UniProtKB/TrEMBL annotation:
PANTHER family: TETRAACYLDISACCHARIDE 4'-KINASE, TETRAACYLDISACCHARIDE 4'-KINASE, MITOCHONDRIAL-RELATED. Signal peptide: none annotated. Pathway: Glycolipid biosynthesis; lipid IV(A) biosynthesis; lipid IV(A) from (3R)-3-hydroxytetradecanoyl-[acyl-carrier-protein] and UDP-N-acetyl-alpha-D-glucosamine: step 6/6. This is Tetraacyldisaccharide 4'-kinase. It comes from Pseudoprevotella muciniphila. One of its GO terms (molecular function) is lipid-A 4'-kinase activity. Transfers the gamma-phosphate of ATP to the 4'-position of a tetraacyldisaccharide 1-phosphate intermediate (termed DS-1-P) to form tetraacyldisaccharide 1,4'-bis-phosphate (lipid IVA). Belongs to the LpxK family. ATP binds at residues 47-54. It catalyses: a lipid A disaccharide + ATP = a lipid IVA + ADP + H(+). GO terms for cellular component: plasma membrane.
Length: 343
């Protein structure tokens, strides 16, 4: 609501001054960045809300795993624990946060940890294991660690150039902070972008000469059962989509291409409770299946015993992956590996 949001502009100016001063202190080396011997890639964005960080972190993990053990270190947003924590299973969203739990559930062999102090977290990881590289999830604003490659994501539907600083808009930092990125990725693009679209996006995002600009789209795999031993075969039909993510509309649009869909939307990072299960059960009446996200799956799984068997057998999880447009996957790999390993 532009008419209301503009009222927050004076507060955005104050916020921008604080952020600008902090960045100045880092740029002037008054606040120090720590450099580690292990290759580090940071991935994040300028805005709050979903830009597809988790699917891109998973993509990076798969790509880099051929070089050896890869560790993933996150702040663990929304977790109940404090300090450094190892993520030991994929069913610990309360202790470790949504995204780290999702990573561990999807990649059980991965070294996954959480710590708000990324420097301390890296030290703890290196005490335990020798790793080929470390992925810092949601770390664009965490400047106390100097990454070898800094990746900035911006949502095609909410480009940083169209936004404003908080609280008027969604930006944590001004658009000028894009200069710290080595790689900029425009995420969630339509798969059928034309050459003129790429040119316009290049003009609008304004990458610097030293930066690499890439474009990705979201792809959806086959839904898989949340409770495999009890699942009935997935046949589509009438679907209840249950989400606790920032922007569920792309998922709903995808599901609507092959089924009738009703959305039951919860806030981003929502902690599901017994009452929510009852509400889902009421909404599920008249539907064939429940589809949820990989981020929400561990939180729902924790409430397994609150669900009737008919619900458990009908819950499926929709995986999301990313695909590089413009046949740029190989080029992205070269740029990333050159920045991390010098190859």
């Amino acid at each position: 609501m532009p008419g209301i949001s503009i009222l927050f502009r004076p507060f955005s100016w104050i916020y921008g001054g604080v952020v600008g001063f902090r960045n100045f202190l880092f740029d002037a080396n008054v606040l120090r960045q720590r450099k580690f011997d292990v290759p580090i890639v940071a991935i994040g964005n300028l805005a709050v809300g979903g830009t597809g960080k988790t699917p891109h972190t998973e993509y990076l993990y798969r790509m880099l795993s051929r070089h050896g053990k890869i560790a993933v270190l996150s702040r663990g947003y929304g977790r109940k624990s404090k300090g450094f924590q190892w993520v030991n299973s994929g069913n610990e969203p309360l202790r470790c946060g949504d995204e780290p739990s999702q990573m561990k559930r999807k990649f059980p062999e991965a070294i996954v940890a959480v710590d708000a102090d990324r420097g301390e977290g890296i030290e703890e990881i290196l005490k335990k294991d020798s790793v080929a590289a470390i992925l810092l999830d949601d770390a664009y604003q965490h400047r106390y660690v100097k990454p070898d490659v800094n990746i900035l994501l911006t949502d095609y539907n909410r480009l940083y150039c169209d936004d404003h600083l908080m609280p008027e808009g969604r930006l944590r930092e001004p658009m000028t902070s894009r200069r710290r990125a080595d790689i900029i990725i425009v995420t969630k693009c339509p798969a059928d972008l034309k050459p003129i679209d790429f040119q316009l996006l290049n003009k609008r995002t304004k990458p610097f000469a030293s930066q690499h600009l890439f474009f990705t789209t979201s792809t959806y795999g086959a839904p898989y059962p949340l409770f495999e031993s009890e699942a009935k075969p997935f046949t589509g039909g009438k679907i209840l989509a249950v989400t606790g993510i920032a922007h569920p509309s792309p998922l709903v649009s995808h599901l609507k291409t092959s089924a009738q869909v009703e959305l039951l939307r919860f806030p981003d990072h929502h902690r599901f409770e017994t009452e929510d299960i009852k509400r889902i059960g009421e909404k599920f009446s008249g539907h064939d299946f429940i589809i949820t996200t990989e981020k929400d799956a561990p939180k729902l799984m924790a409430l397994e015993h609150e669900m009737p068997k008919t619900m458990r057998s009908s819950i499926y999880v929709q995986p999301i992956e990313v695909e590089f447009l413009h046949d740029d996957a190989d080029n992205f790999k070269k740029v990333l590996e050159n920045g991390l390993f010098g190859i």
